Amino acid sequence: MRAPEARPWPRPWAVGYVMLLLLLFRAAELVPRVRRQSGYTPDWPSLDSRPLPSWFDEAKFGLFVHWGVFSVPAWGSEWFWWHWKGEARPDFQRFMRDHYPPGFSYADFGPQFTARFFQPEEWANLFQAAGAKYVVLTSKHHEGFTNWPSPVSWNWNSQDVGPHRDLVGELGTALRNRSIRYGLYHSLFEWFHPLYLLDKKNGFKTQYFVRAKTLPELYDLVLSYKPDLIWSDGEWECPDTYWNSTEFLAWLYNDSPVKDEVVVNDRWGQNCSCHHGGYYNCQDKYKPQGLPDHKWEMCTSMDKLSWGYRRDMAMSDIAEESEIIAELVQTVSLGGNYLLNIGPTKDGLIVPIFQERLLAVGKWLSINGEAIYASTPWRVQFEKNTSVWYTSKGGDVYAIFLQWPGNGVLNLKSPVPTPTTTIMMLGIQEDLKWSPDPDKGVIIILPQLPPSAMPVEYAWTIKLTGVK
To answer: Which residues, if any, are the signal sequence (predicted)?
Structure first.
């Protein structure tokens, strides 16, 4: 049988009591019974005491994938619907007048989100070649369209509309076949869902949307796909008590099938960012000035102006390979993970410029990954007024310098050499010549090689063994 036509919430729609009761009844079937047992309690002091599973800190580099119905207009940003109908921005309204017939609704984009050329095995191969240790896919963005057959999506999902496929499930299988950890992005709120708007009108004193939509989806994602990571978003209009965040996280940590390995971020309600959660995002493209005292992640996008794919992006909007690698190095040196975003097309293609950048990062990591994966911050994170950043692992220290000194001599002020110190460059087998700096540190003679013989084009790694 053909699935019913999807009509999310783009046209005027009155919430009737019958539909509300049906949604709540269906949602109640999807929420598991929480067993009260010893373990983490539904409050932040208890939840924040949970140790972060070690795999996340060791991973260091992940990929973010923003993909949904917003990939169809593919213009402006993934917030297309909000800019068009929520803010009523003139440029987005003009775009619709110029390219689509009168009366065209956002729901009409749904069937055009075909994922026709989506091949999860090819995506997984590319992500593996890029050196990513985890991948986070949008299961649902603020538009409400789910990339899996959510039972509470009211047919606004990838199984009933557009691809007619379970995109979340297919990519998860391909990634796990390659031992890549799988994370799911999930937006707590939806711009135009009538139940959310009703709760908002009620000053968030009611939880019709949370009980009928948000929580059933979160439980369904965990039970159906067993994600290694839940990347929560869309929390900022309401306190965590509206979202019942602590209740869900207590179940996740105590009773869920992923209770021992799952990792979550910090976007679970107003004032939670940078305060509560497994690790901190704080804000998009967050860059601390020093070493934070809590595990964190920098999320950023290859397209500097958008997270979703844009047909109108220019080359100047795309981060250069050297920029990406420099951000990765700086993030890891300060104890963070680096989550780099790409946006596939509506057809499920990753455009060549994104592929090229990912493969360049993978090539760099194939040489320098020893200084990145499973590393820890050193006692000094960077040399002031230079381009040198440090990481460490065991008894080894890694100095990654982003600019090649003009005289071919690298002066490191922070390492203190000993009689057993050896120094080499990753990608070159021979030890380097060096001498103690009379003032402080070491002076290293860099390899005198033509550019074609260098292991990488930028961001070179010096490995120091036997320093204090």
So the answer is: 1-30
Q: Which residues belong to CATH 3.20.20.80 in the chain? A: 36-371
- Segment 321-331, tens digit of pLDDT: 999 999 999 99
**Predicted confidence (pLDDT) per residue in 82-92, tens digit:** 999 999 999 99
- CATH superfamily, region 388-465: Golgi alpha-mannosidase II (2.60.40.1180)
Outline which parts of the chain fall under CATH 2.60.40.1180: 388-465
| Residue range 36-371, CATH number | 3.20.20.80
pLDDT of residue 207: 98
Amino acid (1-letter code) at residue 443: I
Residue 366's alpha-carbon distances to 40, 130, 132, in angstroms, are: 40, 9, 11
Which residues have CB under 8 Å from 79's CB, separation 6+?
Answer: 70, 142
Do residues 195 and 20 lie in contact, with contact meaning Cβ atoms separated by under 8 Å? yes
pLDDT in tens, 22-72: 566 566 666 776 555 569 999 999 999 999 999 999 999 999 999 999 999
Look up residue 407 and give its two tokens: 């005289």
In single-letter form, the type of residue at position 295 comes to K
Residue type, 14: A
Length of the chain: 468
